[in-house]
Amino acid sequence: MKARRFCISFRVVAALLAALAPVVAAPPAGYRLVFSEEFNGASLDGAKWNIESGTRRWALNSSRAVSLNGSNLVITTFTTNGAHFTGIVQSSGKFDPRYGYIEASINFDTAPGMWSAFWMFNSGVGSILGNPAQSGTEMDICEHRQVDGGGNLVEGGVVSNIHWDGYGADHQGIGTALYGSGLQSGFHTYAVEWTPARQRYWLDGSVRWTVNYPVSTRPEYLILSSEVEGNSWAGNVPAGGYGNVDVSTTRLRVDWVRAYALPPSLAPVANRAAAMNTPLAPVRFTVDDVEVAPSAITVTAESSDPLLFPAGSL
Fold first, then answer.
1. 3-state secondary structure of 54
2. How many helices (H) and strands (E) does the chain have?
3. How far is it between the farthest Cα atoms of the chain?
4. What percent of the residues of the chain are helix, what percent strand, and what percent coil, each to the nearest 5?
5. 20 to 30 Å CA-CA from 128: which of 151, 226, 277, 303?
6. What's the half-sphere exposure (Cβ side, CA atoms, 13 Å) at 61?
């Protein structure tokens, strides 16, 4: 009887450990690692990341909210003397990929009146109305809340969204319904696979959303954030706030962030030869059946598509 009890206990412990273990997902075949951040240092790597400061919505972004615990990036949302503080970490000017497979392993501990997210952004969003390809988009890989605007518990899932044409009267957006389960605990892998033709949003190795329009063709930087706003899609801020920085349990933990370059077969047309490391064959022209040296011909081309005619290519 004792042996059987031991066997059952062992199985229970093994099941609990399996549930707590991070879910690791591999990128699609052919992608090449170009960026990796494991957050194992004593402080945030300033060569890769910026910490935003200043007021956003109902909170003040502060470096006090950003820390490393030896293996994770931690963004803590807290309240001091009635004021709310939180953090935003981003890679603008340090890592701004255009296309690829971008993923992060994240553990969400959210609370009412705030949400946390892993997303990408380009400061040109809305600069060319009706052309999100050239002006860029906001790409919300995942957004996590504990409750929705009606106070309903939604912490088991996330949503993904894309915004374009600015944030005023011309704003447009599309997104998913709530998806996933059990995402309020443990680390899970969230990713976007971004090619010139489409974007696919992944959760723990499975595609959950595919988008063919809009697709940004602009470089976009990475953002890991928590934001506070009461009376919003994330419900209301608790009456007493979130507790001070030492006791708050409202935290975004990130185990790692990785980015992979497109395989040559998916690279933009203008970049494909370079991506394949294969030189283009010499171009020969004929005019009235007479071969003419390329240097003797002037080619004039116009296109609004930077993938076809990058600046300085003609």
1. strand
2. 3, 21
3. 96
4. 15, 35, 50
5. 226
6. 16
CA distance 285 to 171: 47
Residues 108, 183: contact at Cβ < 8 Å?
Answer: yes
Phi, psi at residue 294, to the nearest 5°?
A: -55, -35
Average pLDDT over residues 73-82: 98
Residues pairing with 89 in the sheet: 51, 224
pLDDT in tens, 210-263: 999 999 999 999 999 999 999 999 999 999 999 999 999 999 999 999 999 999
Q: The tokens of 82 are what? A: 């009635």
Q: Record the tokens describing residue 161, joined without a space.
A: 């969204």
Can you tell me the distance from the alpha carbon of 46 to that of 36, in angstroms, rounded to the nearest whole number? 14
User: Does pTM surpass 0.90?
Assistant: no
Nearest to 286, CA basis, from 277, 297, 299, 276: 297
Q: What does the pLDDT read at residue 269?
A: 66
Please state, in angstroms and rounded to a whole number, the distance separating the CA atoms of residues 217 and 222.
15
Q: Report the relative pairing of strands 251-261 and 100-109 from DSSP bridges.
A: antiparallel
The sign of the torsion formed by the CA atoms of 95, 99, 100, 105 equals positive
Q: Which residues pair with 144 in a beta bridge?
A: 116
Buried b (16+ CB within 10 A) or exposed e, 64-75: ebbbbeeebbbb
Q: Name the strand (E) or helix (H) holding 147.
A: none
Q: Are 154 and 144 in contact (CB under 8 A)?
A: no
For tokens 């807290």, name the residue: 78
251-305 pLDDT, tens digit per residue, is 999 999 999 999 988 888 655 444 444 444 444 444 444 444 444 444 444 434 4
Q: Which of 65, 68, 118, 114 is nearest to 90 (CA)?
A: 118
Instruction: Count how many Cα atoms sit within 13 Å of the Cα of residue 278 in the half-sphere of its side chain.
Output: 7
